[in-house]
Every structure is written in C-alpha cells, then in structure tokens.
Amino acid sequence: MAKTGVLDSDTTVMVKPSELKKELQKLVKLIVDDEDYCTETIDQAKETLYALKQLKINKRSLSIKLHETLRCPEDFKCPLSNDLMRDPVILASGQTFDKLYIQRWLKAGNRTCPRTQQVLSHTILTPNHLIREMISQWCKSQGVEVPNPVQYINEEGITEADRDHFLSLLEKMSATLFEKKEAAKELRLLTKRMPSFRALFGECLDAIPQLLTPLSENKFPSGIHPNLQEDVITTLLNISIHDNNKKLVAETPMVIPLLMEALTSGTVETRSNAAAALFTLSALDSNKTLIGKSGALKPLIDLLEEGHPLTVKDVASAIFNLCIIHENKARAVGDGAVRVILKKIMDGVHVDELLAILVMLSTHHRAVDEMGDLGTVPCLLGIIRESNCERNKENCIAILHTICLTDRTKLNAMREEENTYGTISKLAQVGSARAKRKANGILDRLKRAINITHTA
C-alpha cells in the first residue's frame, strides 16, 4: 500500500491541527476498510496522533523546544520540566516553578517542595511577576516569541476562565450589598457542586479573607443580612471539606470568631452550618486545639441546650470531635457540657451521639463528680434496661463503671437496680466484650462492698 506522504519528512512544524485531523481520518479509514492494511499504516497513524497531541499540549506551531535552540538562563527554567517557564509561580517553600508542572505535582498528592523536600504549610501558588517580566525581556532580546501560559485544565474541568470568574466573584464581596448577595450565593452553589472550586480557595492567598469581608465590615445599620451571612458561612463549610484547606481555613484569623458569632445569630441553617464547619475543621488535631482555645465550645454547648432539631446533630458532632483531646474536655466540662448533655439524654434527644460525648467526658474527674449529682446513675441504668442499641448499653455501663470507681455512694443505686431487675448481670452475660468487662467490674465492686459491710 502506498504511503500518504504527509508525514514522510519532519513537517510537523508547518502542519495545522485541521490537516493532521484529516490525515488521521484518512489513515483510520484505511485501517478499518482495508483488510490487507499494513503495519506501516498503523505507525503513520501513531505519528499523526502524536503530532496532534503535541500541538494540543504545547499550544504552538513549533514542536522544537525553545531550550534546544537557545540556551536560556537556568533561573528561567522550571526545576520540574527543565524548560523555559511560561507561567512562573512561587511555592510556599519560596521556590519558583512553572505553574503547569507544580500543579501536576500537587494534584498527584505531593505535599513537599520538589526542590528542597520541605513540607509545605499550604499549597497556594503566588505569581512570580518579577521572573515572568525577566523572561519576557530575555525573549525579546533573543528575538523569540514570549511563551504564553498553558491553560491547565485539571481533572475536575477548571479552566483559566473559571479562575477569572472565581476572582471576579471574590471582588464583588467588597461591592454593593446586592452584588455581595449575588456573589455569595453563587460561590455557595459552586463550592457545593464542584470540589475543584473548593480547591481554588487554597490556591489564592486572599480568597478566604475576601469571602468573609461582608461579615467583618459591620457596615449595615441593621446588622448583617441573614441570607448573606448564611451563604458565606455555608461556603466556608463547603471549602473546609477539602482536606488541603482545613489548616488554612482554621488559621485565617477571622474564621473562628465569625463561626462563633454565627452560632448565636442568623438563620437556623447558618447556625447549623457554622457548627458543621467547626466539626469539619476539627478533623486536624492542631485545629482542635486552636478552636478549643478560641472559646468555641461555650457557644456550641449553648446551641445544644437550645435544642433546635436542625442544629443538634451538627453541634453534637463538633463537640465530640473537639473533646477527643484532653484539654478540650476540661473546657467543655467548665462550660456546662455535662448538665446540658444529660438533660438532652433524659429527654430522649439524640441519645446515641450524646452518650458518645458523655463517655468521653467521663475520663475527666470533674465531669464524673457532676454526673453523680445530676441523676446520671438511674438514667443510664434505665437506658441499659430498655434500649435495644448495644453501643448505647456499652457506653452507659462504661460511664457507670467510672462513677462507681470514684463515688462509692452510687453503689447503692446500682445494687437496688441489680436486685430488682438484674440489669448489670444480664449485660455481663450477653453484652459486647467491653460491656461484659465493665459490667463484671461493677459486680465485683458490689460483692466487695457487701463483704466489707458484713465484716464490719
């Protein structure tokens, strides 16, 4: 079979994409229609595809790289590609890379500087205008075309046009009230539907402060517009879901205070989403400490006590996460968490979630003292007796075990329960492994207490 001749010589420097596509169609047709096609035709198709790919990726008519024809200064080359940089940006380590290549590095899950191996404190990429201008001047002096930045489209489909739109929305957060409301509403929808837009907040240094501008200005005579506050707080929740944003969001100075304020004001959804944002951010231990020190547990506990059905679950989740670290347990107990949680449990409100918090707080001595004075023992014994949830029974008996270790006076109530219903003995026989162990521990103490009484 005769060659088509289009790629017989190195003509990729002058062939247009449209010509390559026509050639590719012709070659594919030959392969599909001709049963006697030769392997040479397949090779030609491969070469055509490669040439088309190069044109698509590089967005230029020349396939010969600039550094092969001109020796450019080393400072103008990207350390990752070793090519002249098109869009130089500065990484958190202070090193400069071509944006296309460092984005690929970060999106592959790397969180270190590829040049220094330094762990990155954030993934924000700052344009290096100085280097870009120097590259531009050098290109002009060499009589070559200044390289245009490659429009990098990531796996979620974000384009430079999307980035420009994102930045324009942030600018509107400092405009008129109408523009702020429209921009906040759109940012809320974009960060909900497109995970890539959440990532954009981590790439732009001032994005989060710009988002929060309407909540920090306090320029409105009648206070912050409730819908605007709701949209901003919900957007903050959405971007906090992105793992790489959690540290950046929590450490932005105005974030935690504004979330705390939102817990006590605005719509029910605003308050619920503020609690959800604190829960999401508290996934990092460093954020747990930061949020606890800021005093956020008190408004969370107050909101829990208020007890709106739409807020309780998010609030409980936030308190649970924060109290994983010991210092926050002390803060929660000091802010009245034990009393509020027990009241909700007695009222049958979100018992599962609140028992999980209570068993965590029971490792703090002051919490155990409070539990003994608030009718905890009969409440928990009643749950063990009546509940069908093994996890709740396990949490209840764990708390009771801690109480009986520190307050012998509560053994009488447990003994009466055991004599009347055999509640603890039943759990020692059919409960989970942990429940059995705690139940047997209580039974042993009851026996020892009886023996001591008889001896005395």
Quick recap of the structure?
The protein has 456 residues and is an all-alpha fold. It contains 25 helices and three strands. Helix 1 (17-33) runs antiparallel to helix 2, helix 6 packs antiparallel against helix 7 (177-193) and helix 24 packs across helix 25.
Q: What structural class do you assign from the helix and strand content?
A: mainly alpha
Unreliable stretches = 1-14, 59-69, 151-156
- Percent of residues in helical segments? 55-70%
Kindly report the average pLDDT value.
84
General shape: elongated
**Beta fraction:** under 5%
Note the total helix count.
25
CATH architecture of the domain at 74-142: 2-Layer Sandwich
Radius of gyration from CA coordinates:
32 Å
Question: In order across it, which strands form the biggest sheet?
Answer: 2-1-3
**H/E element sequence:** HHHEEHEHHHHHHHHHHHHHHHHHHHHH
State the CATH topology of the domain at 74-142.
Herpes Virus-1
Identify the CATH homologous superfamily of the domain at 74-142.
Zinc/RING finger domain, C3HC4 (zinc finger)
Query: Termini distance?
Result: 111 Å
Number of strands: 3
- Biggest beta sheet summary: 3 strands, antiparallel
Look at the structure and give the CATH class of the domain at 74-142.
Alpha Beta
